[in-house]
Design brief:
The chain is α+β, with helices and mostly antiparallel strands. The protein is 22% helix and 37% strand. It is globular, with a radius of gyration of 17 Å.
């Protein structure tokens, strides 16, 4: 079974017009699982979820933002995957899924990593706990808020190489 998974840093879901545009994208992309990071929403309800993804068989889980920072929304089509178990951490949302078609069990984690360098170790500790807990094939999606190479820096929306 080939699942279609979308992981997207949406940089806020408060704007009704933005949610409508996202809904139109999701309709055309026909995803099975959608994970949004940086929702900037402290609370999520079924009305908001349905305004984003019009799938009538949707289920969802969220991690609220802290003020205007962070937030994760994980949604899935119940006709495709069944949630067996869930875990909501400080920087991640995880679900243990079973595929409806073939009963294959696996885990998905949506991540929005901390912006502060001193807190980044906590995301790795959170993930290490999850992998040891479920011991399943695992898919990660999200925004870790880290730069792979410290010699890269973002200026004016562009990543530039710094020669040190």
């Amino acid at each position: 079974m080939n699942l279609k998974i979308i992981s997207w840093n949406v940089r806020g879901l408060n704007d009704k017009e933005k949610r409508l545009k996202i809904c139109n994208f999701l309709r055309s992309w026909r995803a099975d699982i959608v994970c949004f990071q940086e929702t900037k929403l402290e609370w999520v309800n079924s009305g908001l979820v349905r305004s984003i993804w019009s799938c009538p068989f949707i289920d969802w889980l969220y991690l609220g933002s802290e003020g205007a920072s962070g937030g994760i929304l994980l949604m899935w089509d119940r006709r495709v995957v069944e949630k067996i178990e869930e875990a909501v951490g400080n920087f991640s949302i995880s679900c243990r899924f079973k595929n409806v078609n073939d009963h294959f069990e696996w885990a998905f984690t949506g991540i929005y990593g901390p912006n502060l360098i001193r807190k980044r170790q906590f995301i790795w500790e959170e993930l290490a706990g999850l992998i040891s807990w479920w011991n399943l094939p695992w898919c990660l999606g999200g925004d870790f808020n880290v730069i792979r190479f410290p010699s890269k820096e973002i200026r004016g929306g562009k990543i530039l190489s710094l020669h040190v």
